[in-house]
Amino acid sequence: xxxxxxxxxxxxxxxLLQYGALLPVLERALVDFSKHDGMVVQPVRSTVPVDxxxxxxxxxxxxxxxxxxxxxxxxxxxxxxxFGTSSHQATVLLFNPSDGSLxxxxxxxxxxxxxxAAVSAIATKYLKPDRLETLCILGSGAQAISHYNIFTQxxxxxxxxxxxxxxxxxxxxxxxxxxxxxxxxxxxxxxLGADVVITVTMASEPVLxxxxxxxxxxxxxxxxxxxxxxxxxxxxxxxxxxxVDSKEAALMESGDVILSGADIFAELGEVVKGTxxxxxxxxxxxxxxxxxxxxxxxxxxxxxCWLAKKKPKL
Length: 314
Ligand SMILES: NC(=O)C1=CN([C@@H]2O[C@H](COP(=O)(O)OP(=O)(O)OC[C@H]3O[C@@H](n4cnc5c(N)ncnc54)[C@H](O)[C@@H]3O)[C@@H](O)[C@H]2O)C=CC1
Ligand SMILES: O=C([O-])C1=[NH+]CCC1
Prior knowledge:
binds 3,4-dihydro-2H-pyrrolium-5-carboxylate; thyroid hormone binding; NAD(P)-bd_dom_sf; Rossmann fold; ODC_Mu_crystall; single chain; ornithine cyclodeaminase, domain 1; binds 1,4-dihydronicotinamide adenine dinucleotide; seven-stranded mixed beta sheet; alpha/beta
């Protein structure tokens, strides 16, 4: 009989997962996905609208042959949640690929926060302009915090600006992170002159406009994961060189891509592998939707770290 699955809760996932180990694992997952050679199986996320409660449930399975990783994430994202509960909550199931038995059930919320920020950081590593002085974050929730943490660790920004719909939540964000943050009263003020812009909002209408974005800047567009939702206007979508995590998903899920009719230049995995160029001198935009391979690779890393910790020391 197979062993009973283990459970790894949020605090333990946060303890086991380090960006230093996560970044190369995600780069490899992005490259393997973008080879499109049949070795990675990842259907586009299946999303169930829960209209009555203004929410969605997404199911994200993947199998990666080379690392022999089989997992699925189940993620809920709701517009209105009770005070104190986060809008996104996720669980990852990790299977034994040889017989399909369940190995681990783990918190997926921390995984989602960290792997999404890490993928944006990878995109920025490859697509960033030469000058990196000002980082702008639009939104002040869970993803804003994880993005702040890895971006200020990895890049030498001199200034970080944040804008959120309410000044109160932007100020709460500024009080939660370590380091100086300039709270801006408008998105425009936050964006003007920034070298890197991150959009991490639950908006369904544009919050970022092309006319504000400095030519040559890099944008990580992380929100708006529904075909009718936008975070960017058409001007930005059409004038920037557009990179995505998955072309197939972008054409099915991203309102910014579908409704603007912008052309996709490349997948991030192709840039990491070196088969498509990083046009850093132009304005670049990475449209992130989130992929199951990122969750599967991260969950395997968490599980391997958990196993290593449990092993008796000789
Ligand atoms: N690409 C990816 O892999 C992933 C993307 N996401 C997306 O990232 C975004 C942020 O997620 P979290 O930080 O976890 O959510 P959160 O609920 O913690 O924060 C959402 C932020 O958006 C703001 N906001 C809500 N409605 C808005 C509107 N109409 N206009 C402007 N701002 C608005 C809120 O004030 C808050 O600052 C969401 O769109 C989410 O779906 C989340 C996980 C993975
Ligand atoms: O990849 C992910 O987990 C999500 N992307 C958008 C909402 C949740």
